[in-house]
Design a protein that fits this description.
The structure is a single chain. This protein is an alpha/beta fold. The protein is built from ten helices and 15 strands. The chain has two domains: 17-83; 97-428, 3-Layer(aba) Sandwich (Rossmann fold). The chain has helices at residues 17-39, 44-83, 117-130, 174-185, 211-221, 236-253, 309-318, 321-327, 351-364, 410-428, and strands at residues 97-99, 112-113, 134-138, 141-146, 161-166, 190-194, 208-209, 228-234, 262-268, 289-291, 294-295, 338-343, 371-376, 392-397, 400-405. The chain starts with 16 loop residues before the first helix and ends in a 9-residue tail after the last helix. 36% of the residues are buried.
Length: 437
């Protein structure tokens, strides 16, 4: 199965009835396209024979979906009728479960050394031939490349802009595995970077160097057909994306300037500050990012009774102003256009308010001309992607699990995700932004 076409089945996570309906409709649409493409190569007699069989197949497929929906409704009605005489408290809705592979079991295929041009070309050719993702070791990081389809009825024209994907607290390729295939369908090559092991791994989000991200930008820009590179980060990855823009700006000022093709930064549900790293215990304040051997100052606010968006804002307001100012992300130092997408119903941290603070800092420094900030009032933290998204998610991996409350509602999240995805594609295409908030 070409998993880039079935993003809802990645990681074997549970899907809602609405998601099932979307997938069924897409599958039926592809069956129709396959039949049309195949019929064009047949004789008129064969066409007549195949048309009858194909029509029956499509009707059967759609009938199956309708029957399944009717069966679900009937079963639900029966359960409701059975429980009517003795009403009981309804059980809490269980969040979908995402099984997270650890570093040791994440990928069966090897990671190709990116320093060998011949090996890179061979790996990309093999990936395109077998319709899989290409895998490399780039700047010391295991990386996965998501290639636009170039053959068959799903073939698209590969865009000259490529995207680097940086996940959040997990630091692995979970976000990239979900977002990369969706970008590929839109014609954008992307590269996900596994830069630390947030859950159960040995490499924590502590003292992560920014230089390898910039090296990955330069490497991706050297690949065939790539004219521009955009770094897209989500949550903690948005911090890394903005700081990568800072590294590129300093490279521009170097003598001689270091060539690169960085053309934009996208920050999904970002922080406006450098957040603390992952220490031995939740109350340990450790540096998360560093550049040229120097740690970036971090917020001194991890020690709070209960971590929430509200408590985080209160802690920032109560902390010494000099410490808060030092930890604020220097967005004004980024020389390339930026797209910032926040969410006001975010329960992980207040990315909507953080996005406004990013805009305020850029404006105060006269650097808001190339900045686009959009905040979605009804969205939770899972703003990246398209389609439905549950307000909470249970993650399981070898040796542990936890349930994250991302916020928002399924309907609010879906509307915001689809709108934000349009903003992303518009930004990638360097088109004029739509009038907005």
């Amino acid at each position: 199965m070409d998993t880039s076409f079935y993003p809802y089945f990645l990681h074997n996570r549970a899907i809602s009835a609405a998601e099932s309906e979307v997938v069924m409709q897409r599958c039926v649409g592809v069956w129709k396209q396959w039949i049309i493409a195949f019929v064009g190569r047949l004789s008129s007699q064969s066409v007549a024979m195949l048309a009858s069989a194909s029509l029956g197949l499509l009707m059967a497929g759609q009938g199956f979906a309708q029957s399944a929906g009717a069966a679900r409704n009937a079963a639900a009605s029966a359960r409701a009728a059975a429980s009517a005489p003795q009403p009981a408290a309804s059980a809490p809705v269980q969040p979908p479960v995402l099984v997270v592979a650890t570093t040791a079991t994440a990928v069966a295929l090897p990671f190709v050394n990116s320093e060998s041009a011949d090996a890179v070309a061979a790996e990309i050719a093999a990936a395109q031939r077998t319709r899989r993702h290409a895998q490399f070791t780039v700047a010391g990081m295991q990386s996965r490349m998501y290639l636009p389809p170039t053959r068959g009825i799903r073939a698209v024209r590969t865009q000259p802009t490529a995207v680097i994907l940086l996940g959040g607290t997990d630091g692995q390729l979970i976000m990239a595995d979900l977002t990369g295939p969706q970008l590929a369908e839109a014609g954008y090559l992307s590269l996900g970077l596994h830069y630390h092991d947030g859950w159960g791994g040995s490499k924590k989000l502590t003292g992560i160097d920014i230089e390898p991200f910039f090296e990955a930008v330069k490497w991706l820009g050297e690949q065939k057909g790539v004219q521009r590179v955009v770094v897209l980060g989500e949550s903690r990855g948005a911090e890394a994306a903005i700081l990568t823009g800072l590294a590129a700006a300093r490279a521009d000022r170097a003598q001689p300037p270091a060539p690169h093709k960085l053309a934009g930064i996208v920050a999904y549900v970002p922080s406006a500050y450098v957040q603390p790293g992952v220490g031995p215990t939740p109350n340990d304040l450790v540096p998360s990012w560093r550049f040229r051997g120097q740690n970036f100052p971090t917020l001194p606010i991890f020690k709070m009774p209960t971590f929430s968006s509200e408590n985080l804002l209160k802690a920032i307001a109560a902390a010494p102003k000099a410490d808060i100012d030092a930890a604020e992300l220097p967005v004004e130092a980024v020389n390339v256009p930026m797209l910032v997408l926040g969410a006001d119903a975010d329960r992980i941290w207040p990315s909507g308010e953080f996005s406004r603070r990013i805009a305020a800092r850029a404006k105060a420094n006269g650097k808001d001309a190339n900045l686009r900030v959009v905040v979605y009032p009804q969205s939770g933290h899972r703003l990246l992607g398209t389609g439905p998204s549950a307000p909470s998610q249970t993650y399981r991996w070898d040796g542990g699990s936890f349930t994250a409350n991302y916020g928002g509602t399924e309907a609010g999240n879906q509307a915001a995700r689809d709108a934000a995805w349009e903003e992303l594609l518009c930004f990638l295409a360097q088109c004029t932004p739509k009038p907005g908030n």
